[in-house]
């Protein structure tokens, strides 16, 4: 990276509570501390810096996103005094619109879904010579920006980690972790990805390519990607509270290809919403931080030792949890999560089903 990046190095802290619970050194990479509250600021600001360098100060950054990618683009454009327009679908919260406007972004609301907002963004880019479409996750420049996270962890950790945990939606974060691990000689370090049931397009895509007879959920269908020779799971709708951030219709085929071929492997885990909600509340109690469900999904093994033991070698001494962040969280959300989890716990006793690479793991309620 020739230019000084817009992001600042984020802390890597050791969690004494989680470490004691898991019996190893549990490190937290606090990506929630970026200006836009999520890791996306790394890759998207890197892309926007390159776009401004290529197209000049009159570049117009255009993005379709009602979530963390949109805010990251707005923050980066504002920092560079560049124009930014964010297209978001109908039904967006007024608080989201206000957050974007505080970063001097022009906000265009319209369309029944993200795909409509994306099409409107593409039309604007076609009509303006200086307009550039900012990708949410499907772009190598974005992955290169995210890869800086691993390069920081490499300097912050004394020993190589035995595993890295992250959430996955479209795959941008994972793409960055894979590239970063290659750059620092950690290609053999296992990566564990986590999603919620109902947004788990990456999990089902990996299963389809490892086991072609894999059955997809009713809300998904298989589509072919000729460029990479892959089959992708395409979700037509979502059934998870985390869909606002994890709800990609299909994952990046480029990232899927890297994950399938990676030396250290990528383990794929999908969990029920209730476990992510419980982890969000536990993390708030432990570390006095609110994180959205897309982020707390990563932290579920940190609070469920029986699950953690199934995902990493028993000899694991150092693990890293990427606290990816996200602005879609509030005190009222946490109260809602408490009600949902308490209601579930008062129901039938037993366990929650977690799926890991085709295996069902029972996690005690």
From TrEMBL:
Signal peptide: none annotated. It catalyses: L-serine = pyruvate + NH4(+). One of its GO terms (molecular function) is threonine deaminase activity. Pfam families: PALP (PF00291). Residues 7-325 form the Tryptophan synthase beta chain-like PALP domain. Its EC number is 4.3.1.17. The keyword Lyase applies. It is an enzyme of class 4 (lyase). Keywords: Lyase, Pyridoxal phosphate. Transmembrane segments: none annotated. InterPro entries: Ser/Thr_Dehydratase, TrpB-like_PALP, TrpB-like_PALP_sf. Its cofactor is pyridoxal 5'-phosphate. GO terms for biological process: isoleucine biosynthetic process; L-serine catabolic process; L-threonine catabolic process. Belongs to the serine/threonine dehydratase family. PANTHER family: CATABOLIC L-SERINE_THREONINE DEHYDRATASE, THREONINE DEHYDRATASE, MITOCHONDRIAL-RELATED. This is L-serine ammonia-lyase. It comes from Pleurotus ostreatus (strain PC15) (Oyster mushroom).
């Amino acid at each position: 990276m020739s230019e000084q990046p817009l992001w600042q190095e984020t802390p890597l802290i050791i969690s004494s509570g989680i470490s004691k619970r898991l019996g190893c050194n549990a490190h937290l990479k606090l990506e929630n501390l970026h200006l836009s509250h999520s890791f996306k600021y790394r890759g998207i600001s890197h892309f926007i810096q390159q776009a401004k360098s290529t197209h000049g100060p009159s570049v117009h950054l255009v993005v379709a996103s009602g979530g963390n990618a949109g805010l990251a683009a707005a923050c980066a454009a504002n920092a560079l005094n560049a124009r930014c327009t964010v297209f978001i679908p109908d039904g967006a919260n007024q608080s989201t619109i206000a957050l974007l406007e505080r970063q001097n972004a022009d906000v265009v609301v319209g369309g029944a879904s993200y795909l409509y907002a994306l099409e409107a963004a593409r039309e604007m880019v076609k009509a303006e010579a200086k307009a550039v479409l900012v990708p949410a996750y499907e772009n190598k420049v974005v992955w290169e920006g995210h890869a800086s996270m691993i390069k920081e962890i490499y300097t912050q950790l004394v020993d190589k980690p035995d595993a890295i945990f992250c959430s996955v939606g479209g795959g941008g974060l994972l793409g960055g972790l894979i590239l970063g691990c290659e750059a620092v000689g950690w290609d053999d370090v296992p990566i564990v990805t986590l999603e919620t049931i109902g947004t788990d397009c990456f999990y089902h895509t990996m299963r389809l390519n490892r086991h072609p007879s894999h059955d997809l959920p009713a809300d998904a269908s298989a589509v072919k990607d000729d460029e990479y020779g892959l089959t992708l799971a395409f979700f037509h709708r979502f059934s998870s509270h985390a869909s606002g951030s994890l709800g990609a219709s299909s994952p990046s085929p480029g990232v899927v290809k890297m994950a399938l071929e990676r030396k250290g492997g990528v383990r794929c885990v999908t969990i029920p919403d209730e476990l992510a909600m419980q982890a969000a509340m536990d993390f708030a109690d432990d570390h006095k931080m609110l994180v959205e469900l897309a982020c707390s999904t990563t932290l579920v093994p940190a609070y469920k030792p029986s699950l953690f033991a199934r995902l990493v070698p028993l000899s694991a001494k150092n693990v890293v949890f990427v606290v990816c962040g996200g602005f879609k969280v509030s005190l009222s959300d946490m109260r809602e999560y408490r009600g949902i989890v308490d209601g579930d716990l008062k129901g039938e006793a037993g366990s929650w089903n977690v799926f890991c690479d085709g295996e069902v793991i029972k996690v005690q309620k």
